[in-house]
Amino acid sequence: MASLIACPHCGPRPKEEFTVKGDAAIARPAADAGEDAWYAYVYLRDNPRGRHKEYWHHTSGCRRWLVVERDTVTHVVYAVLDASAQGETA
C-alpha cells in the first residue's frame, strides 16, 4: 500500500506527489550576515536521526509549501501543517 500524506488542502495524497525540500528548523541569516554564515546556511546540513521537521512542496497537487514532522528512521508522519500558517516560508 502506498504511503499517504495528509495535505491540509487536498486531503490524503500519495507521497509521490510531494517533493522534500529540506530542514524547516534552519534560520535564514540576515542580509548583511558574513560570508561564513551564508556558506553554512546554503551548504552545511545535519542528517538528523528521529523526529524532525522538513519543508515539503505539494508539487503534483495544490503546490503549497508544507511543514511535515516525521521520523527520519521509521518515516512515520506525525504532523502536516501549511508553512504559511506557521509563519514560515521555504
TrEMBL record:
Annotated GO biological process: tetrahydrofolate metabolic process
Gene3D superfamilies: Folate-binding superfamily
Keywords, in A-Z order: Oxidoreductase
One Gene Ontology term of the molecular function aspect: sarcosine oxidase activity
EC number: 1.5.3.1
Protein origin, superkingdom: Bacteria
Enzyme kind, highest EC tier: oxidoreductase
Protein name, as recorded: Sarcosine oxidase subunit delta
